[in-house]
């Protein structure tokens, strides 16, 4: 029996309340494609909210004490790159998974670094361009300082400019307290009266913002698009009242492809639960690792051989063909424009795909410019708070 020992990095998330189970279940489903003569063992490390010290400590323990063959986990793009000397020294493949709050720049590459992401930087750029084309006039963005700590709002802004917007008004929540207060954002909309605004918020702030937006009838003069996790039906906090808003994502639960249907069916049959974005991303990791193991044939299974094999893998997942390598990192997933609706069948919030836009590359000049607008930013993977 051939064995692969996998180290897992699992952070805390108050948004994805069952992140550990979501991630492990998606990975386990993807690993069902392994050859029959393979056995999997797991060693798991909790990394708090994903700060660099916690990730460094976890990597050192997994590589030196647990002696894993590969590390797969939820880690921030910038933090995992700052930890590259650890896994490169031990010549161990690491698959970093996150929602894509940061653009992966030219520095984000290594023979031992692999990556899959929801690519929010990409979908926000596409959302900005789409919104400006459809709503026109003077745009605005309503966001918190937390969301501003990533590249997403800059990508959205450049998408607006790509569709002809001359200027964009950024409205920030000025306080960072435990109690959300989004009325200042609503007040700014009442004063400025933009043609449309984009809500880049999460958690309780997003819920409160939508409440005030509806109560004060802002929709009568300002159209609203939202960040995908404002109206995501796979979150426990999904609000059935948050209907009628457009968002964009590279994957959505109701994506109508054979591969996504097979993924959903397999996941729900195995775990009696609905998969979310992290389930899907982990599933991609499992598919890629399964194909990598198959490609090894009779060669020995070790850190170096797995890294070499993974670099050559191109797999087919719920979003289409993908590769995890970062030498270079290349991803061409299209972006789906969705509208949130209350399902007549379930009376629950659902996102229906209404348009599809082609992929954009992180090497596109304006997207790289967005990346370099924020040279610091938060350490935690987006929504791991």
Q: In words, what does this structure look like?
A:
The chain has twelve helices and 14 strands. It has 385 residues and is of the alpha/beta class. It folds into two domains: 2-118 and 255-322, Rossmann fold, CATH 3.40.50; 121-249 and 334-372, Response regulator (Rossmann fold, 3-Layer(aba) Sandwich). It has a five-stranded parallel sheet. The protein has a four-stranded parallel sheet with strand order 7-6-8-9, with helices on both faces. A three-stranded antiparallel sheet has the order 10-13-14. It is globular. Residues 3-337 form the Leucine-binding protein domain. This is Leucine-binding protein domain-containing protein. Pfam families: Peripla_BP_6. It comes from Pedobacter yulinensis.
In brief:
This protein is α/β, with parallel strands linked by helices. The chain contains 12 helices and 14 strands. The longest helix has 20 residues, at 277-296.
- The fold-level CATH name of the largest domain is Rossmann fold
State the domain count.
2
* Secondary-structure class: alpha/beta
Oligomer: single chain
Question: What is the C-level CATH assignment of the largest domain?
Answer: Alpha Beta
SSE inventory with pairings:
Layout: E1 2-10, H1 19-30, E2 38-46, H2 52-65, E3 70-74, H3 77-82, H4 84-89, E4 94-98, E5 113-117, H5 120-135, E6 139-143, H6 152-162, E7 169-172, H7 183-192, E8 196-200, H8 203-215, E9 223-226, E10 246-249, H9 258-271, H10 277-296, H11 303-311, E11 315-317, E12 320-322, E13 335-342, E14 349-357, H12 365-372
Helix pairs in contact: 1-10, 5-6, 6-12, 10-11
């Amino acid at each position: 029996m051939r064995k692969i020992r996998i180290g897992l990095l699992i952070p805390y998330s108050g948004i994805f309340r069952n992140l550990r189970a979501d991630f492990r279940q998606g990975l386990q489903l993807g690993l069902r494609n392994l050859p029959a003569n393979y056995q999997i063992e797991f060693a798991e490390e909790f990394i708090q909210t994903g700060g660099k010290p916690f990730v460094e400590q976890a990597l050192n323990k997994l590589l030196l004490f647990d002696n894993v063959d590969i590390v797969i986990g939820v880690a921030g793009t910038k933090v995992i790159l700052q930890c590259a000397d650890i896994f490169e020294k031990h010549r161990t493949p690491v698959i970093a998974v996150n929602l894509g709050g940061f653009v992966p720049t030219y520095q984000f590459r290594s023979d031992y670094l692999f990556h899959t992401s929801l690519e929010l930087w990409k979908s926000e750029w596409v959302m900005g361009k789409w919104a400006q084309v459809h709503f026109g006039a003077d745009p605005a963005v309503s966001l918190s300082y937390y969301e501003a700590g990533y590249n997403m709002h800059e990508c959205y802004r450049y998408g607006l400019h790509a569709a002809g917007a001359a200027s964009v008004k950024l409205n920030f929540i000025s306080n960072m307290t435990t109690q959300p207060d989004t009325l200042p954002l609503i007040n700014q909309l009442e004063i400025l009266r933009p043609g449309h605004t984009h809500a880049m918020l999460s958690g309780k702030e997003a819920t409160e913002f939508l409440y005030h937006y509806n109560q004060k009838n802002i929709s009568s003069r300002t159209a609203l698009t939202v960040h995908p996790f404002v109206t995501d039906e796979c979150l426990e906090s999904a609000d059935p009242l948050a209907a009628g808003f457009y968002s964009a994502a590279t994957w959505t639960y109701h994506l109508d492809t054979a591969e996504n249907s097979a993924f959903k069916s397999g996941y729900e049959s195995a775990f009696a639960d609905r998969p979310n974005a992290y389930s899907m991303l982990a599933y991609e990791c499992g598919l890629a690792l399964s194909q990598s193991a198959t490609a090894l044939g009779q060669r020995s299974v070790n850190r170096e051989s797995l890294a070499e094999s993974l670099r050559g893998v191109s797999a087919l997942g719920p979003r289409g063909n993908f590769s995890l390598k970062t030498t270079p990192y290349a991803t061409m997933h299209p972006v789906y424009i969705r509208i949130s609706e209350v399902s007549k069948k379930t009376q629950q919030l659902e996102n229906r795909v209404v348009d599809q836009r082609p992929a954009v590359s992180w090497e596109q000049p304006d997207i790289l410019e967005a990346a370099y607008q924020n040279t610091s930013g938060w350490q935690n993977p987006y929504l791991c708070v």
